[in-house]
Design goal:
Two copies of one chain form a homodimer.
Chain A (H helix, E strand, L loop, with lengths): L21 E2 L4 E5 L4 H14 L6 H4 L5 E8 L6 E8 L8 E8 L10 H13 L2 H4 L1 E11 L3 E5 L2 H5 L3 H11 L17 H5 L5 H12 L5 E3 L3 E7 H5 L7 E5 L4 E3 L6 H19 L12 H7 E6 L1
Antiparallel strand pairs in A: 1-2, 2-4, 3-4, 5-6, 5-9, 6-7, 7-12, 8-11, 9-10
């Protein structure tokens, strides 16, 4: 039996007669093929990527495993429809904190048709993409079993965060006091195990960066980094299973001998935000108040779900 | 006495009653202040940068020295006009090969006015900027004392080079046979002393890159890397005095806590082109022919000046 995934933070969601991805109980994620060229483009990327022997193993691990396409009963009741069969990245994860970051200041490729270009450009200008080189597309932060999850107010407010607001969100993401209805500064209690160390988020991002400095095979437009970890594991001193994955390849193009400077630039900008949290721990303390307007821009009024 | 510089490869040139930069005989470069906000913006950048104690010495060396502004007799005969007084980067250089590379796929800042944005975007799309993350703005390659210099056909053709054409130009730049009227492949005779080594171009670009991965003070739109060396020194086994400098700061903006992901992405793309020439020397040989169309796109028909 297929069901609607628990941990989806961005993109079209299934349910109430709408078309969206589904998961099964053995770790597979079924993503409906978008009817236009986006669906075909994503299939052809996964097919090319999964058979490309030039991609080193330490890079393939950042991509969902691909298991072809399959006709399954669509979530909108429209009958059997083709779906990408992918690895369910959140399978077997408990009380997961997750964030979706769309990388690149430009979400359109060089030879995009004029109307598509102007549509994307308008969105890139209206969101954080242009100033920051990336935009947060979604986030779900686990507070505690008592308060549950905390989610940003709405889809559009999280996409328009300023640099200071992104910093605050990335601190809250790894803080023990993030889900409380207080105006306390985030304590960044889990910054070190989640962002730091030889297997943490920063280290993984730097591996990905090194590949992007060299690879000229693919250009990834409108592609996201998913960042996730399990807070309760960190709370009891275990590894929080911090992980990044790349998702959404409907707008991947051939690199044609040039590096993906647009993705790389945005990735480096995101890396700088993460590394600043690790190198300036003094910014994380409970002794002063967070700016109210910033907090309100990020979070919903009721806080938890 | 001020005179028109010998080695200018991009930008407005003085002479025949036109306004342009001038040099004196003691190593100073006089750049007319553009009358609109660009002139004021460039003065304010140089003033800020030259007094900023956070810029490390190994980075300040990549920028022209700044000596304030001064009223001097303008080259267009319009009388005494304000000029930036800068270091003449080509002073004391003999038979210089020089290239101007405008860095960044986007030459406009996030909050640019609509008409300026669309004007720049049109140019970025029509040139190499969007696909490559940079465009060559000018080049002057010294061949030999017999044939003199070789310059690209015209300003617009060099700005629209494809990835393959840029590779060929960057190889010709460091080849002993580049100025000959042959269809021989560039021999890359000086690739190693100019691009390689601990003091070569690649090493300098990587130092600059490391700073751009970290600095959040300035964003450099429409700024160029000048790359230069002296071929005759290399020919007799001396150091070719290979050097990069940053120029043109009329469109520098505050970084506001975010790295310059647009400049950094373009810089990384350019670095990849240079490093490929060093790592794949087999591509440089005299035993096969260069594609005629590529050669014609880059160079003027008469070859030398």
């Amino acid at each position: 039996m297929l069901k609607v995934p628990d941990h989806q933070v961005a993109g079209h969601k299934a349910g109430d007669g709408r078309l969206g991805p589904l998961v099964d109980d053995s770790g597979r994620f079924y993503k409906p093929l978008q009817g236009d060229e986006r669906g075909a483009n994503e299939v052809s990327f996964y097919t090319s990527f999964s058979s490309n022997t030039k991609i080193p193993d330490h890079i393939t691990r950042f991509f969902p495993k691909f298991d072809g396409t399959q006709l399954v009963e669509a979530s909108d009741g429209s009958g059997m429809q083709p779906h990408l069969v992918l690895q369910d990245l959140t399978f077997d994860r408990v009380n997961l904190s997750i964030m979706d970051i769309k990388i690149g200041s430009r979400t359109w490729p060089p030879h995009a048709p004029e109307d598509y270009l102007q549509k994307c450009l308008k969105k890139d200008r209206a969101t954080s993409s242009l100033p920051l080189g990336f935009r947060v597309s979604g986030a779900r932060i686990f507070g505690s079993s008592k308060v549950g999850y905390r989610e940003p107010k709405n889809k559009s407010s999280i996409q328009t965060l300023s640099a200071d607001e992104v910093k605050l969100l990335l601190k809250n993401f790894v803080s023990s006091n993030a889900s409380e209805e207080t105006q306390m500064k985030p304590d960044c209690a889990f910054a070190s195990p989640v962002y730091g160390g030889s297997t943490g988020i920063l280290s993984q991002l730097l591996e990905l960066k090194a590949w992007f400095e060299d690879q000229t095979i693919y250009h990834f437009y409108s592609c996201s980094v998913l960042m996730m970890f399990e807070k309760e594991l960190a709370s009891c001193g275990k590894s929080p299973r911090a992980e990044i994955k790349l998702v959404d390849f409907a707008h991947v193009h051939e690199g044609k001998g040039v590096i993906d400077h647009n993705f790389l630039g945005g990735l480096c900008s995101f890396i700088k935000f993460i590394s600043e949290i690790l190198t300036t721990p003094d910014d994380c303390s409970a002794d002063s108040l967070v700016d109210d307007a910033q907090r309100n821009h990020i979070y919903s009024d009721n806080g938890s779900v």
